[in-house]
Design goal:
Rossmann fold; 14 helices; Arc Repressor Mutant, subunit A; 2 domains; 8 strands; five-stranded mixed sheet
Length: 291
């Protein structure tokens, strides 16, 4: 296979992946993984419990079998495959929440990405008629889903950050995450460490500057500020995931991923002295600063 053929094959698979995402999304929103986790059921039993069309449910379940989510048995029942357990509501993977967020909140804006290029306004705002923070507040279930998913995603990284910084149990840590950022009023004073993980990237430069200035106003001279972000690379090929993160912020929140120099410039303007930058796991970088 030539390099061009390989590229075309990869793009073809990426384009056609919507089938699999849509199947997984429908399964989770209907609660099928949880129902099948209790034991095998026929299509007729599932359809009766959910008020659906049995012939269509059977065809749908066979589609889930092709993804390794379900198993079709000789007795006409369908069982949850081992791989499908990652989509149950109690799975530590968080994939059930992620598929609901991605399809329910991100698909339509990304489909309208061209509108952002035309107007400079996040496609989310244009699709849903309000910015993502306001929309999540108005749709409490979706907002709670996002906040819960974000909390699970950040827990492990937060523990790694605190360990890297040598934070003691007596230190008061003020942690601000992306779900809270839009609601920020006055930031609590008296903290020893102020932690912003994945927050600045959700804002444009003006919004990021406001958050940093609020942190600076709340901090005593001996306190520390730590920013954890995925940095923009010099070349797109150096970190494609960072490029996609930047595009996602452009499309959904109006924010952006930044280079280390850009973050340091924001810190300086807000009254901080950047101290160090340390790579940590998950391709993230810890940027420490002091007043």
């Amino acid at each position: 296979m030539t390099e061009q053929e390989s590229l075309e094959d990869r793009l073809r698979r990426a384009i056609e992946a919507y089938h699999e995402s849509a199947l997984a999304y429908a399964a989770v929103t209907l609660g099928l993984p949880d129902m099948l986790a209790a034991g095998p059921l026929t299509a007729e039993q599932l359809a009766g419990a959910l008020g659906l069309s049995a012939p269509h449910v059977r065809r749908f379940l066979r589609g889930l079998c092709t993804l390794g989510i379900c198993e079709e048995r000789a007795d006409a029942t369908f069982a949850l495959a081992p791989g499908g357990r990652c989509l149950t509501s109690d799975s530590p993977s968080g994939l059930a929440a992620k598929i609901q967020i991605v399809v329910g909140q991100y698909w339509r804006p990304w489909a309208e990405l061209a509108s952002t290029l035309q107007t400079g306004v996040p496609a989310f705002d244009q699709v849903f008629g309000r910015n993502v923070s306001d929309w999540r507040r108005e749709h409490a279930q979706q907002g709670t889903l996002f906040a819960s998913y974000l909390a699970k995603e950040t827990k492990a990284d937060t523990e790694a950050v605190l360990a890297a910084l040598g934070v003691s149990e007596s230190d008061k840590v003020v942690e601000i995450n992306a779900a809270d950022a839009a609601l920020l009023g006055d930031i609590p004073a008296g903290g020893d460490l102020y932690l912003l993980k994945g927050v600045l990237q959700t804002y444009d430069d003006d919004g990021a500057a406001v958050i940093l200035r609020k942190c600076r106003a709340a901090m005593a001279e001996g306190a520390r500020l730590v920013i954890v972000e995925r940095l923009m690379p010099e070349s797109a090929a150096d970190d494609p995931a960072a490029i996609m993160l930047d595009l996602h912020m452009m499309t959904i929140t109006g924010g952006r991923a930044r280079s280390l120099a850009e973050i340091e410039a924001l810190l300086t303007d807000a009254g901080f002295t950047p101290a160090q930058a340390t790579p940590i796991r998950s391709c993230l970088t810890l940027v420490a600063a002091k007043p």
